[in-house]
Design a protein that fits this description.
Layout lengths: L4 E5 L13 E6 L1 E2 L4 E3 L7 E4 L2 E4 L21 E2 L2 E2 H7 L2 E2 L8 E5 L1 H9 L3 E10 L2 E6 L3 E14 L5 E6 L8 E11 L15 E5 L11 E11 L9 E4 L3 E10 L12 E4 L6 E10 L1 E7 L9 E19 L8 E5 L2 E12 L3 E5 L2 E4 L14 E6 L10 E5 L2 E3 L12 E6 L5 E6 L3 E11 L4 E5 L3 E11 L7 E2 L6
Parallel strand pairs: 9-11, 10-11, 11-13, 12-14, 13-15, 14-16, 15-17, 16-18, 17-19, 18-20, 19-21, 20-22, 21-23, 22-23, 23-24, 23-25, 24-26, 25-27, 25-28, 26-29, 27-30, 28-31, 29-32, 30-33, 31-33, 32-34, 33-35, 34-36
Antiparallel strand pairs: 1-2, 3-4, 4-5, 5-6, 7-8
């Protein structure tokens, strides 16, 4: 973050050399480790502590009751902005809160104090975290590391960051985390305190209110990895966060064993109109790449998942809509990688776009997840009545290949599996896809209706379209190309 220059009216400072009424640029301001507000070449303006500005005697013409007491800065602006806001935007280092950052000293308390300060933060060093870091209240969080030089070491089974924003029907807050590397040095399964365990768990207790783009989570260049076999943790868990943008996220599970229930990103949009964007990210050795767990009502509103590599994952994308059928849309594009059970699984979502993805089945390693009977590249299902918004789906220009899985015993390797609800008109379009080395290219289950099939490209596929639906319920534009 650029440190703002303070543009101060000369009449507000005791500087005899500056003509009255003139403006002077006094250089970039900063706040040192003791909280002193300094300007290069000028006097200390005062002290910034606990979210309040304490004026230095005679430095500012502000009313005060005694030396160093709080002056009213409500009317004091710098470049059109209030002074407290400018001072709060000057980033502080974690070291200014007592952290050492050498990877040896325990910096848990200092990191907690920094994240709870409400200050913009910058980070450089290796910070050892030995317990739960809890950020609780109603505040913006702005954390930015120096790229490739800010690392948190999760040293125990209780290491975790838990951000619990407590809101009601007031403004929600923005959480920004950029350029952070987390190295997991233990098996972190169940941290005492929070209801979920993850490397980063962000929870809005009073969700269900959409208040615009400020109610959001913004993560960029966040890496979660392990240092040795047997060390792992859930990656990022978001609960009721309204608008979440995750870009350049890397999550690596246990490097030798895929463990059930260890997911890269979990988006729990229960009871709130929530939207998730995940782009340009990479996951490996996780149960689910991106998981939308089932919710009872008013689930997540929409998601865009673009340019994600998941190798290997048990399920690459696992999106389950709410039981009321109100999950609105999902757009999956540019997904690439290998899976064990399902590549893309979408259930009970009104509007679905699964286009231009490259998905490959791969054998399950011995002793890990169970060998699936029906590994599927794409599993699209509707098990509930279509909601009031109607519904549609487009599955086009995808590549599915079961070649690597040919030596493992399955009941059937499936390219695209379709399951409908009581012959309800789905308005699904299965465009041209490239399906290879499979037992069934497209498997149509009973109850599927209103699907339009375009010509497909099949190679080494035993059965192109296995049609278990009622005759006449679906249509094919032209003969399937074999």
């Amino acid at each position: 973050m650029r440190v703002p220059c303070l543009l101060v009216a000369a009449t507000a400072l005791s500087l005899a050399t500056v003509p009255a009424g003139a403006d002077q640029i006094l250089g970039p301001g900063r706040i040192d480790g003791a909280g002193t507000v300094l300007l290069p070449g000028g006097p200390a303006l005062g002290r910034w502590q606990g979210g309040k500005f304490f004026s230095q005697p005679d430095a500012l013409n502000l009313p005060s009751t005694d030396q160093g007491s709080t002056g009213s800065v409500d009317g004091f602006s710098v470049g059109g902005r209030k002074l407290p806001k400018i001072l709060n935007d000057i980033p502080a280092t974690l070291q200014s809160f007592g952290a050492v950052g050498d990877g040896i000293a325990d910096d848990t308390a200092a990191v907690q104090a920094a994240l709870n300060s409400g200050r913009a933060l910058t980070c450089q060093g290796r910070f050892k975290i030995t317990g739960l870091v809890t950020v609780q209240g109603t505040k913006d969080i702005h954390f930015k590391g120096t790229r490739r030089m800010c690392t948190f070491l999760y040293a125990t089974s209780q290491s975790m960051i838990y951000i619990n924003e407590q809101t009601s029907r007031g403004p929600l807050y923005k959480i920004t985390i950029h350029d952070l590397s987390i190295i997991v040095q233990a098996a972190i399964i169940s941290v005492v305190g929070p209801d979920k365990t993850a490397a980063i768990y962000i929870k809005y207790d009073g969700g269900g209110v959409y208040n615009g783009p400020e109610a959001s989570v913004d993560m960029d260049h966040v890496t979660i990895s392990t240092d040795a076999p047997g060390h792992y943790v859930n990656g990022i868990y978001l609960y009721q966060t309204n608008v979440s943008h995750l870009n350049h996220i890397v999550v690596q599970g246990d490097p030798t064993t895929l463990r059930g229930g260890v997911n890269a990103i979990t988006y729990d949009g229960a009871n709130s109109p929530t939207t998730l964007y995940v782009t340009n990210s990479q996951f490996g050795n996780v149960d689910n790449g991106v998981l939308f767990p089932p919710v009872t009502a008013s689930g997540w509103q929409g998601a865009r998942l673009h340019n994600i590599d998941c190798t290997p994952c048990n399920i690459m994308i696992n999106a389950i809509g709410g039981s009321d059928g109100l999950a609105d849309y999902i757009d999956i594009r540019g997904l690439e990688g290998t899976f064990y059970t399902v590549g893309v699984q979408v259930s009970n979502v009104s509007h679905v776009f699964i286009n231009q993805n490259y998905i490959f089945q791969t054998p399950v390693p011995v002793g890990q997840v169970a060998i699936p009977a029906f590994p599927m590249c794409i599993n699209l299902s509707q098990t509930l009545p279509m909601n009031r918004n109607g519904g549609s789906a487009s599955v086009t220009d995808n590549v599915c290949d079961g070649f690597f899985n040919s030596k493992q015993t399955h009941t059937a390797r499936i390219g695209i599996n379709l399951a409908g609800y009581s012959r309800q008109n789905l308005q699904w379009v299965i465009g041209s896809n490239r399906l290879a080395n499979l037992d069934k290219g497209i498997n149509v289950n009973i109850g599927v209706a209103g699907v339009l099939f375009y010509p497909q490209s099949f190679k080494n596929v035993t059965t192109g379209i296995s049609n278990g639906a009622t005759a006449g319920d679906n249509a094919t534009v032209a003969s399937t190309a074999f």
